[in-house]
Here is the input.
Amino acid sequence: MLTHAEIAKLIPHAGAMCLLERVLSWDESNIRCSSRTHRDAANPMRSDGVLPTACGIEYAAQAMAVHGGLAGAIGARPASGYLAALRDVTCREGALDGVEGELVIDAERLMGDEARVIYQFTVTVGTTEMLKGRATVILDAGGA
Here is the structure.
């Protein structure tokens, strides 16, 4: 299990923008993370005091970035990753900040190379699926 501080070393997000609190498990193609930051009134993704469910995409993107760092799937740590496409995204109505319990973020690497990766992801609370979809990420492995 990785802690918030260890996660922050693997992704470019700092401070409150590092949304994940723990890595629960991971292997070559999967990662499971958790967080309660969706309940934090100081969450930087809130808009007018609300954290829309679609913000779960950022939680998933951070899980993908952590997975890339842990699995060594890209050879070198990229300077950045760019979310190039989202597919088949379904989002439960409402907001994440009103949901009791821990967010669990699952991401599975479907394919990729040093330049791009495709993941499918889900964000759940308990047995409730809040968000799911697929993401294509373009990696900038040439940066510092």
Remarks:
- Residues 56-71 form the longest helix (16 residues).
